[in-house]
Design goal:
- There is one protein chain.
- This protein is an alpha+beta fold and about 290 residues long.
- Helix content is about 45%, strand content about 15%.
- Strands 2-8-4-7-9-10 form a 6-stranded antiparallel β-sheet, with helices on one face.
- The longest helix is centred in the last third of the chain and has 19 residues, at about 230-245.
Length: about 290
């Protein structure tokens, strides 16, 4: 199979604005099916629904919408598709220096400067922060350009002060990469995304990036802080989490549909990954979503 090349997304600011603001109904945003990266910092609010999030080497499953801040040049997939069930998705994209080279160096911008630094690893916001900031983000659609800018700065400041956040790649993705590394990693991630339900060998992936198996293993661990086998298993387990929440099929079927060929290994891996058995996870999630 020919690998899907990484996509450098070119972003144009909204007319009359220093940053880009886009609002989509349901799954109208078409970035969900491919890996992409861009120099702009990206703030995404998914209003309702559930789905996969994959940012850098981090893979997880979100429910009841999501609020995510993604740093410059951090590869990621889109967050919505025809199965997500979200109402809207709002995407704000800004260059790190979108207000000038020195603006964020002034003392009043310390919080936002710190937030942008944390965003290099990707941040997910939870609870009341997700709800309150999400409402403010959607309200920006009706604001004037100046009001939008002031709202943006206020939102970024509130996000830095929030205690309801998770840094997604705290021990993971190395962002000190050369462009060649970025391209290689995107090719690998695309291949896993498209083939995780099948058996994937180290040999076939090493060939994709023109490396020997030992060199590839060392390289992948250095870049992502995960072994390749662990990364593939994590991807499969997140897919299993999604199926447990969304499909009324047996856990045995979910095991094999997620790319595992051993049911006892799947059960053990799922409990290590989530802290719960697959049946317990499904039962608890159902009670939350009711």
């Amino acid at each position: 199979m020919r690998p899907i090349l990484p996509n450098l997304e070119i972003i144009t600011p909204s007319f009359g604005s220093s940053f880009s603001f886009s609002k989509y109904d349901e799954n109208a945003n078409n970035n969900a099916n491919h890996w992409h990266y861009h120099p702009e910092i990206e703030l995404v609010f998914v209003n309702g629904g559930s789905g996969k999030r994959q940012i850098g080497s981090h893979i997880s499953y979100y429910t009841d919408g999501d609020l995510i801040l993604i740093g410059s040049n951090l590869p990621h997939c889109g967050f919505t598709n025809e199965q997500t069930g979200n109402k809207q998705e709002t995407v704000i994209q800004m260059k790190p220096d979108f207000l000038g080279n020195d603006f964020f160096d002034i003392s009043e911008m310390t919080n936002i400067r710190n937030l942008f630094n944390q965003a290099k690893s990707g941040i997910s916001f939870l609870g009341e922060t997700k709800k309150d900031i999400g409402t403010k983000i959607e309200a920006m659609e009706e604001q004037s350009q100046l009001e939008r800018l002031l709202s943006m700065l206020s939102i970024l400041n509130e996000l830095e002060l929030s205690k309801e956040s998770i840094v997604l790649n705290a021990k993971g993705f190395s962002m000190e990469m050369e462009m060649q590394d970025n391209d290689r990693v995107n090719v690998i991630f695309n291949y896993v995304k498209d083939n995780f339900q099948e058996h994937i060998t180290l040999e076939e992936v090493a060939v994709l990036v023109s490396m020997t198996v030992p060199s590839f293993c060392r390289y992948f661990k250095k870049i992502t802080n995960k072994t390749f086998t662990r990364f593939v298993n994590d991807y499969r387990l997140v897919h299993a989490s999604k199926l447990l929440a969304e499909k009324p099929i047996s856990i045995t079927e979910i095991c094999f549909e997620s790319g595992f060929n051993n049911f006892s290994y799947f059960n053990k891996s799922f409990k290590e990954f989530t802290g719960k058995s697959a049946s317990q996870y499904r039962q608890e999630l159902r009670s939350i979503l009711k």
